[in-house]
């Protein structure tokens, strides 16, 4: 009976060590995929930060899946900035700032309603060139928003938001380019 207990204990330990090793290998492989993929972008740190912040990344084994997660990050950041611009529009009393914010809202809606959809479809359908252009256009829309404000009247958070939107859009565009 003691030898049966010993054998069962040994088999359990063997199973656990194999399972742990397999899990560690999967995590390492995924981590390597994120690092390898992001190293091909103009901002590897931003790329890794965005991807690792999304829990879906842990189960990804394909660069195309990472790319779709990055496009979702673009969508999320533009959605947040759209809400920010809408909130400021309700609060501002300056007509020039109000007009510039309305333009930003239009630019952000173009990104959300057209560019993100186009990039996602292009990647899924295996035609990445159009997705790359859509993400480059998104970066340009962020810059167009910022440049629409009169001198000295740019809302305090907007330059930082513009850098983030521009950066994440360019990272997504460069990731899409790797599929070409």
From TrEMBL:
Listed Pfam families: PMEI (PF04043)
SUPFAM superfamilies assigned: Plant invertase/pectin methylesterase inhibitor
Record domain Pectinesterase inhibitor: where: 29-175
InterPro entries noted in UniProt: C/VIF1, Invertase/methylesterase_inhib, PCW_Enzyme_Inhibitor, Pectinesterase_inhib_dom
Leader sequence residues: 1-21
Keywords, sorted A to Z: Disulfide bond, Signal
Keyword Signal (UniProt): yes
MF GO annotations: enzyme inhibitor activity
Family: Belongs to the PMEI family.
Name of the protein in question: Pectinesterase inhibitor domain-containing protein
Source organism (scientific name): Opuntia streptacantha
Lineage: Eukaryota, Viridiplantae, Streptophyta, Embryophyta, Tracheophyta
